[in-house]
Amino acid sequence: MSLVPHQPVCRSTCRASWRAVCLAAASILLVPSSAHAYLVSITSGAKSMFLQVGTGTMTGGNFQSGGTAGNNTTINTVAVTVPATSVGAGPIGMTPNVIVVTSPWDSFAFCPYPAPVYVGGYYRAPSGGNATLSVRSPAALVSGANTISFNNISWVSAGASDATPTIPAGTFVAGTTQTLLSIARNFWFESCLTFTYANAAAVPAGTYTQQVVYSLTAP
Amino acid sequence: MSIDTRLIASLLTAAVLIACAAPEVDAATVRIDDSGTVVNQPLVSMRWRKPAPSRAQDHNVDAEVRVALRLNMAQFVNRPVLLYMGLAPLTGDPVTATWRTQGRLLPGTVRSGARTLIYNGVVSSAQLEETIDVTLTTDGRNLATTQTLQFYFEVDTP
Known about the structure:
The complex is a heterodimer.
Chain A: E1 4-5, H1 6-15, H2 18-30, E2 38-43, E3 48-53, E4 57-59, E5 68-70, E6 78-79, E7 92-93, E8 95-96, E9 117-124, E10 131-136, E11 140-143, E12 146-149, E13 153-158, E14 170-171, E15 177-183, E16 188-197, E17 213-217
Antiparallel strand pairs in A: 3-9, 4-5, 6-8, 7-16, 9-16, 10-15, 10-17, 11-12, 13-14, 13-16
Chain B: H1 3-21, E1 29-31, E2 38-39, E3 43-45, E4 47-48, E5 60-72, E6 80-87, E7 96-100, E8 108-111, E9 114-122, E10 127-139, E11 147-156
Antiparallel strand pairs in B: 1-11, 2-5, 4-5, 5-10, 6-9, 6-11, 7-8, 7-10
C-alpha cells in the first residue's frame, strides 16, 4: 500500500472536470476510515464478587496490596449464655467465637468493637445493575422440642470511621430472607455487626441453636 | 442543463469547493501506510487494575499488547519529519495508550482522539521498523462491549 498524501488528491480534483470531480468526491466518501490503521480490540474486565462473613482467608496480603481471597467455609458462631437469674430480664449481648477486627481490603482495624461479626465484600462488573446482600433466617432457634423465635435476635451495625453504618441495624424476621443492602457495582462495602438476644420471655433451659445464611447475589 | 440539474451541480460544486478548502488547514499532514504492522494480540481482554474495588476507587482496566511496527516512509527518505502516532476517537469512555519502544522511536502516551509525537528526525530508510509494548487503559465500569481501537501514523511536513 502506498502513501496517501491528502493535499495533492484534493488539488487535482479541484482542477479536474466535473465528471472527474464527482468520481473523486465519491472515492473520498467511500474510503474507509481505517485505511491506514492497525487495530486492537479490547474486551471488558471480568465479573467477580466477594463476600466475607466472620472469618475469611487472604493470601499474599490484603486486597490493596495485591492479596488474593480464598474460599473459607468456616461457619462462625455467635452465642450468649443467659444466667438463670436473668431469664426473661431483657436484652443481652451475644459474642462471636472468632472476632475479626481488620478489613481484608487494607487490613485497617475496621471493627475495634467488643463483639463484632465482620461482613464485607464487593461486586466487580463492567455493566449491569446492583448486587444484593441478604440474610436468610430459620423460623426459630431449637433446643429439642423447645424453640425461640428468631425474631428475638437483632443487630446493630458500625465501622471505624464510618459516619453511618453501611449495613443498617435490624432484627431477624423469622423464617424469611431479608435484604440488607443494595450494592452498586464496583464498590466495596463492609460493616461490623453486633448481635443481641432480646431475652424477653422465660424459656425452658437448654442450648438453642440455628444457622443463618448471608448471600451476595449479582445480576 | 435543466434548472434542477444546474442546482444540483451548483450544490455539488460548492460542496467540493468546501471539501477542497478544508484540507488547507492540515495541508502538510500525510497519513502513513502501516499495513505491514503486526499486533501480537489483536483481541485482548482487559484486566481490572484493582481486582477488588475500594472506597477510594480505582476502576481502571488495562492490558498490554506488543506491536511490530512497519511504516512505509519511502516518500520521506533523507527528509526531516515529525511522525505522530494517533488513536482514533471512540464513542465510549476514552482509552489511553502508553508505549515503550526499543529506542528507534520515542515512548509516549496518547488518548483516543489525539496523537503524540513518536519520531522527530531525518528518515534514513524506506521502511521504519520498531517493536513497541503498548499498555491500554480505560475506565472498566463502562467497557461493557468490545471496542476496536484504530491506531494510525501521520507525518507533518513543512
